[in-house]
Design brief:
The protein is an alpha/beta fold. It contains nine helices and 17 strands. The radius of gyration is 37 Å and the shape is rod-shaped.
Amino acid sequence: MLTLAWPMMLIALLLPLLMPAMGKKAQPTTALRLPGTLAIGGSTSTQSPRTIGKWLTLLAWVLLVIACARPQWLGDPVPLQKEGRDLMIAADLSGSMQIEDMEYQGKLVDRFTMMQHLLGDFIRRRDGDRLGLILFADGAYLQAPLTFDRYTVKRYLDESVLGLVGQQTAIGDAIALSVKRFAGLEQSNRVLLLLTDGSNNAGQFDVAQARELARQAGVRIYTIGIGAESMTRSGWLGVQSRQVNPSRDLNEEVLRDLAQATGGRYFRARSGDEMAQIYQSLDQLEPVSRGEALWRPRTELYHWPLATALGLLTLSLLINRRQRHV
């Protein structure tokens, strides 16, 4: 879109109309003379070349005034990235995540499918945050570094599969890796969301070491324990069904301690509905910066009318000089 930075300068366009009148009161034979030695509004008995020169001078004056008004081209609005949070997500891919004990929307699904689906929705809502993804089982692996491209992070989550990085649960390694990824960044809101259904039984770091690293680095940890409290397991030939606790490996005490020591909070997801409520609570505890800031790039265009005006004035001078020699 074309605009003017100083539109009030356009008032100067009227000056050629006022100056002949003023000159007429003081001296009837005097007219406005603009660069180019042409008399504007003076004698009407002009010859054709002089008339052309006069109009060229007038057009040059108009262009000079427009150049002084600073014409600019406004580009399309560009959203500015607002400061948000650095949110690292550590997702458990251990073998126990395949247990089908999570009820969601009337269906019984495994823990991993439920986590993948609801966590994807959570990622899509975090506009303004810089997100990263860590997958852990026998070890911890950085799947997506911190980025504002949340769609890529979700795609990496969608492409992850159980067994990709082992069968065990290296919670300590996942925390230590997230702390390492935060270390190279400037001071920011560092948040780790840790989702697991077990206890630390693999990796190089134990939970106490990782907790201390996170506390010293200022990383706030939200932990989510996944798993139902009971499920029905059929006996031999479908008879003698019994209730079992599928989450007996979940160490809630450790997860709760991790959250409390780092200023976070522990949540327990026994079903898909509870998991969805947890994500809504996280949206409130760690709100996304709202209010989109836009910026429109400006391109200065004053040099075009200025160069054209100078060219017209030069042409006018040449015409008048030629006319004097005729």
